[in-house]
Amino acid sequence: MKWDWRKFYDQAYDWVLYYAPKTxxxxxxxxxxxxxxxxLNKWVKRGLSHxxxxxxxxxxxxxxxAITLMEKLVxxxxxxxxxxxxx
Length: 87
Description:
The structure is a single chain. The protein is mainly α. Helix content is 82%, strand content 0%. It has 2 helices and no strands.
């Protein structure tokens, strides 16, 4: 059986043209989303520090906000058509 390299390259090229824009957009949205979550988490930390809330409660609320926002980000990416392995 002879390997048809031309057909392979054509299929690979078509695959890259189809999936590369979606993948690149998903990576950009993920990076921007994680950066925004980090910024919002710092704002929550600063806001809770000014109110003199107990450190353990502040840590819990910070993590709760961060996890909720990360879940929202993943949900939005899934709605946009990005598939995550194992989900």
